[in-house]
Amino acid sequence: MEELRPDSPHDWADRHVERWRDQWTGIRFDDETEAITVRLDRIRRHLKQCTRRAVEVAGLQIHEYETLHHLIVRDTPGLAAPSALAADLGVSAAGMTGRLDVLERSGWVRRSPVAGDRRRVDIEVTEDGLAVWKRAMALRGQAEDELFGVLTDQDRTRLASLLKQLTLHIEGAG
Q1: Which end of the chain is more exposed for a tag (fewer CB within 10 A), N or C?
Q2: Domain ranges in the chain?
Q3: Residue 109 CB burial class (10 angstroms; 0-12, 13-18, ≥19)
Q4: d(Cα 106, Cα 21) in Å, to the nearest integer?
Q5: Cα–Cα distance, 31 to 49 (Å, whole number)
Q6: pLDDT of residue 65
Q7: Can you give the pTM of this predicted structure?
């Protein structure tokens, strides 16, 4: 792990690595890899907390936000079959029905019959649904801007590139 200057602040990951190193467990690890892993996890948790706060302030519950988000951010923006949303969200058909019932009662989505097949319906976001999602996204964006604003444009570009290398590896393309 890169040595910190004596005057540079230690973060939680530095303290974790120092505590963990040379422990009685006999488990060996690479300091840098452990610090990266710990930092990525803390950043993920921070962003998740920011999203939860933004969603709450916007007047949504997290599952409502997630459902609206998956409905809005797709190849067919704002329109999907309930089964497609359920698959995207990893919920059962019954769970999806319950979510959609709540969103429909709130006026954030509507069910529309599919032309040519009266047994099927599509879910469509309403103007009110889009507006509440945009409020949550704006608040979430502020938190993300605040976090990543400590980096220069060049650092953000480099970080995005490095993280992409890792995700491509996970996805099997790297």
Answers
A1: C
A2: 10-58, 61-139
A3: buried
A4: 52
A5: 27
A6: 97
A7: 0.80
Q: What local confidence, expressed as pLDDT, does residue 1 receive?
A: 43
Q: Is the pLDDT of residue 93 over 90?
A: yes
Q: Alpha-carbon torsion 159, 162, 164, 167, what sign? A: negative
pLDDT at 84: 95
Strand pairing category for 109-114 and 79-80: unpaired
User: In the structure encoding, which two tokens stand for residue 134, read together?
Assistant: 């945009």
Mean pLDDT of 72-84: 94
Question: What's the rounded Cα separation, in Å, for the pair 116 and 107?
Answer: 26
Q: For residue 68, give the nearest of 108, 102, 98 by alpha carbon.
A: 108
Q: How far apart are CA 159 and CA 150, in angstroms?
A: 12
| H or E element at residue 51 | helix 31-58
The architecture of the domain spanning 61-139 is: Orthogonal Bundle (1.10)
**What is the C-alpha separation between 52 and 57, in angstroms, rounded?**
9
For 18-68, the pLDDT digits (tens) are 777 766 666 777 788 888 888 899 999 999 999 999 999 999 999 999 999
Pairwise CA distance, residues 85 & 26, whole Å: 46
Report whether 57 contacts 31 (CB < 8 A): no
Tokens coding 48: 């998740």
